[in-house]
Design brief:
The chain is mainly β. It has one domain: Pnp Oxidase, Chain A (Roll), CATH 2.30.110. About 10% of the residues lie in helices and about 40% in strands. It contains three helices and eleven strands. The strands form three sheets. A five-stranded antiparallel sheet has the order 2-1-7-8-11, covered by helices on one side. The longest helix is centred in the C-terminal third of the chain and has 9 residues. The relative contact order is 0.22.
Length: about 190
């Protein structure tokens, strides 16, 4: 039974919702809002155990990381054409005003379908922030549009990190602890 907590343990508690940016720090940076249910980051690994004669179970030093993955899930209430197009890789805007999007052609997904990053800021009790970034993210599963009386439409994204083809063992994700939210994140949170 826990009877005491340290100050550091209390200050490291993450509170409230996150703010999420597409292409944070880039010229194409965009605040994703309004959202519902906050953001959810996941990092995954697939570990293979090397089978050998005499093995009695999992053995240190005989395991290999075969695959890694990272994702950020977020649901937005903003059903803009830009967000809908972002939900299906390679969607095209079919008129100059951006009023219509159409399905993509079948085949190789263009590099332009991948964002540079998705960055999520989550506040700690201490006043610091967790800055969580995934790289080369793309939502791959499409979208559904539902209109219901006395409810808002929701657009659920699961952005998956991708290795760059030029760096097949590169960085998929990064979690930093920063002392204060950058001005863009603070302004976006205050405006929200």
């Amino acid at each position: 039974m826990v009877t005491n907590l340290t100050k550091q343990q209390i200050e490291s508690i993450q509170i409230d919702e996150s703010v999420i940016f597409l292409d944070y720090g880039e010229t194409t940076e965009r605040f994703l809002a309004p959202t519902r249910g906050g953001g959810e980051f996941a990092a995954t690994v697939t570990v293979r155990d090397i089978e050998f004669d005499g093995r009695h179970g999992k053995t240190a030093g005989t395991q290999v990381i075969e695959e890694q993955g990272a994702s950020i899930k977020v649901t937005t209430l903003c059903m803009s054409q830009e967000n809908l197009a972002r939900a299906i890789p390679g969607c095209t805007v079919s008129d100059a005003e951006g009023n219509a999007i159409t399905n993509p052609k079948t085949g190789i997904i263009p590099d332009s379908a991948y964002l540079k990053n998705i960055t999520m800021f989550a506040k700690l009790i201490s006043g610091k922030y967790k800055k969580i970034t995934i790289f080369n993210p793309m939502h791959e599963t499409g979208f559904t549009a539902k209109a219901v009386q006395k409810a808002e439409g929701e657009l659920a994204f699961e952005f998956l990190a991708h290795y760059a083809h030029t760096d097949l063992d590169g960085t998929l994700w990064k979690v930093e602890e920063i002392t204060q939210a950058p001005a863009q994140a603070a302004a976006a949170a205050a405006a929200g």
